[in-house]
Amino acid sequence: MDAVLIAEAAVNGILLGGVLALLALGLNLIFGVVDIVWIAYVDLVMVGMYAVYWLVTAYGWPLPLAAVAAVALVAVLGLLVHLLIISPILASPPVNQLLATGGLLFFLQAFATFLWTTDHRSLRLALPVVEVFGMYLSFARLLAFTFAILGMLGLYFFLTRTYIGTAIRAVSQDREAIALMGADMRRVYLVTSAIGGGMAGLAGVLLIIQYSVHPHFGATFGPITFIIVVMGGLGNMFGAVVASLVMSEVISIGGILASTEMAYVVAFVIFIVSIFVRPEGILGRRE
Amino acid sequence: MNRRHAILSLSLACLALVVLAAGAWMAAPAGAQALKGPIKIGVLYDLTGPFAAAGAYPGSIGTRIAIDMVNEKGGVLGKYNLQAIAGDSQSKADVAINEAERLLNVEKVDILLGIYSSAIAVPLAEKVDKQNRVLWITIAISDAVFKGRDLKYTFRAQVPGSQFGQISTRFIADYAGERFKMKPQDVRGAIIYEDGPYGTGVAASGEAEMKKIGMRLVLKEGYSAAAPDLASLVTKLKAARPDVLFHTGYNPDITLFLRQAKELGLRMKAIVGHGAGYGQYDKLREAFREDVDHIFNVDPVASQLLDPKKYTNAELGRIRDEFLARYKKETGVAEIPPHASMGFNNTWILLTDVLPRAIQKYGGWSADAIQKAALETDIPEGGTIQGYGVKFAGPGHEVRGQNLRASLVVMQYIGGKTHVVYPKAIATASPVLPLPPTSPYAAR
Fold first, then answer.
1. Which helix (H) or strand (E) segment is B284 a member of?
2. What's the rounded Cα separation, in Å, for the pair B196 and B208?
3. What is the pLDDT of residue B5?
4. What distance in Å separates the CA atoms of residue A260 and residue A251, rounded to the nearest whole number?
5. pLDDT of A233-248, one tens digit each?
6. I need a surface site. Which of A32, A131, A182, B417 has the fewest CB within 10 A?
7. B113: left (phi > 0), else alpha (psi -120 to 50), else beta?
8. pLDDT averaged over chain B?
């Protein structure tokens, strides 16, 4: 195999990893703070994709404006999910919480089918082809990767440089202690859910320029997102970034050295082994 | 005594007559009995999930139009109404099996009809056949549905998957000298496919045909239709440098592949798709605009592309036009996908050829009556709206239940329209081959 093609696969793997990391971060943030896994998280991403698609194609909005609107819309959705579904079951057993967010998943899929049918919808974007040193790179992926990195940096600075961000981190470290110290837990949860929703909206914006959207889009990215979150350590954001890059490189390089199917087999084997060896996640803290 | 003897004789004669009459009544075709309709048909397609937009939904509309058109004329033979009960298999084999159970054993349908995906048809066929119930497959193509299984009550007028790989390879081989200035043996072919029964079967038949012709197979690789990324497959294809790509997939994997192939600079002389996602021209054009032009698609022909003069009777042309008009009115699409014709045509064969014979000759629409009637189906070429004839393989045949007269065409999207380009005898346009420089996939 030509070294340029292997390098091309490696770079494309990194670009894919950026998008996967963005998907995993929002989910991780919510789990780390609210302690609930939003099974329907990738279906919120799907809503964001539809929002951009319709605003651009049906209403003729410019893509950047549609992107901002989609992020805001899914952030509000995140807020509503917390208020209407999560908040009443915060004290319920974990299985009930899983069932509730699982129900939301089926609701979103069915509602999208009802509203927009099962058609696959794509934005017609005429994006240029990027060739660097003989390697072809997807411009859409470069764009997505750049915005994913910006999104992650924005989240990092928000969590480390703002008062509410510090409160969010404190809750993720010790929920009981921070409550005893008089923090407004409800406000922390709401802000976290809105940010998580906003991250899902941003992921939706970055995915609609690369993929067709349809009501069952969640099935494509849902499993790999959850694998990354678990592999990186539930609630561990840096771990999620590392896990995203590991998985995307295994899929990408493995795909050209062996086969696409075998690359996924290897990726899942790595996941299973990592769960046995480090059940707290590759960068998780042992308790 | 004589009188008693006479009465006894008369009584015996009467009894004999009654017995004879009862015997004659029991031996007569049940059609002579008072058959009670309606004929209940369970119509099972993927109305939701990824397969819906890849052809299952258009197929379901085709089936519904066929049932409506028969019912509007009073039903089968003008007197037995059809009652369609829909099921949604949601693009999942386990849901399909549960839905089939519901339709067969709760709704008590007489016939289970439809099935888009081979991944569903393969496990379902055996389960339905074991219950001695009729499964009438309209779209799924995998050879594995029938091969070596000796299914008694499962029938398929649709083309088997093995023919897809054969015709696409022969098409390229036939044009290699004229258009590529190459011997067929020098053509570098690559096969990529979704790794379910549908893709695997088509890929295997393509590989076998390439071997037979001596064409060079430079890459053969499967992938999951749900894979979130196919960039590494594209890179691998670039390393293999194929002249022709033979692709079998559903959607959205086809859309993802074509998009990543363009972005990563994959170049070839021809792209040949095998049905499913490649048959949904409107959807492909929505995603790729003119980039999708000059891609080939192998499928049973979309009936609007056939010259009605080639039908065995003029009535078929009128039926075809009525179906097309209704489909367009309902969906508003510009290019009717082949799956709509498959859904209509393969349902129409059951309703207008098999069921009337089952009722008239075998007494009704029991599974046994239908299978006997189906085995007597003998429709010549040009006798259906998709042009092919129908003769089902009978007992002892390796693919019992499969239509042995089904045939395919190679179509090409040229300038926003679909044209039949192969076999040459029925072509409506000459193929644009190799890909012109305007195509982003054209070899440079």
1. helix B281-288
2. 18
3. 63
4. 7
5. 877 888 888 999 999 9
6. A182
7. beta
8. 90
Q: Which of B221, B228, B264 sits opposite A136 (nearest CB)?
A: B264
Domain ranges across chain A: 3-121+129-277
pLDDT, tens only, B228-244? 889 999 999 999 999 99
pLDDT on residue B11: 58
- Give the pLDDT band (50/70/90) at residue A165: confident
Residue B246 main-chain phi, psi, to 5 deg: -105, 115
CA distance A168 to chain B (A): 32
Q: What is the pLDDT of residues A80-117, one digit of tens each?
A: 999 999 888 888 888 888 899 899 999 999 999 999 98
State the CATH class of domain B162-299+408-426.
alpha beta
Tell me the pLDDT tens digit for each residue of B115-150: 999 999 999 999 999 999 999 999 999 999 999 999
Task: Reply yes or no: is the peptide bond before residue B252 cis, omega within 30 of 0.
Answer: yes
CA B354/CA B368 separation, integer angstroms: 12
Residue A240 in tokens = 């999620």
Residue of A65 and B300 predicted with greater confidence: A65
CATH superfamily of B39-159+310-375: Response regulator (3.40.50.2300)
Tokens 């849902």, residue located: A222
Q: Is the pTM of this model over 0.95?
A: no
> Which candidate in A53, A109, A212, A228 is best for mutational testing of the B interface (most B CBs within 10 A)?
A212
Least CB-CB distance to A255: which of B48, B232, B289?
B232
Nearest CA in chain A to B56: A118
Whether B223 and A260 lie within 8 Å, measured CB to CB: yes
DSSP state of B50: T
Place of tokens 């054969």: B166
Backbone angles phi, psi at B75, to 5 degrees: 100, -165
Nearest-by-Cβ selection for B235 from A5, A141, A212: A5
Q: Nearest CA of chain A to the CA of B211: how many Å? A: 22
DSSP assigned state of B80? B
* Contact between B77 and B356 (Cβ < 8 Å): yes
- The half-sphere exposure of B318 on its side-chain side, counting CA atoms within 13 A, is 4
Write the residue in B48, B227, B260 that is nearest to A138 by C-beta. B260
Q: Do B264 and A8 touch (CB under 8 A)?
A: yes
Is the pLDDT reported for residue A17 higher than 80? yes
Q: Where are the domains of chain B?
A: 39-159+310-375, 162-299+408-426
**Which residue of B53, B239, B265 is in closest CB contact with A120?**
B53
- Rounded Cα gap, residues B417 and B281, in angstroms: 9
Confirm if B197 and B225 have CB atoms less than 8 A apart: no
- pLDDT of residue B12 exceeding 70: no
Which ranges in A182-287 belong to alpha helices (H)? 185-208, 218-232, 237-257, 260-277
ipTM of this predicted structure: 0.86
Q: Which amino acid is at B171?
A: F
Beta strands per DSSP E along B368-416: 409-414
A9 to B231: CB separation less than 8 angstroms, yes or no = yes
Do the Cβ atoms of B264 and A16 come within 8 Å? Answer: no
Count Cα atoms within 13 angstroms, Cβ side, for A256: 26
The per-residue pLDDT for A147 is 87
Exposed, middle or buried: residue B266 (CB in 10 Å: 0-12, 13-18, 19+)?
buried
Question: Has domain A3-121+129-277 been given CATH number 1.10.3470?
Answer: yes
Q: Give the distance from CA A270 to its chain's centroid.
A: 20
Map tokens 């703070």 to a residue: A33
Interface of B with A (CB under 8 A): 47-50, 52-53, 57, 91, 195, 221-224, 226-233, 235-236, 238-239, 251-252, 255-256, 259-260, 262-265, 283, 286-287, 289
B50·A5 Cβ contact <8 A: no
pLDDT band for position B44 (50/70/90)? very high
**B261 secondary structure, DSSP code:** H
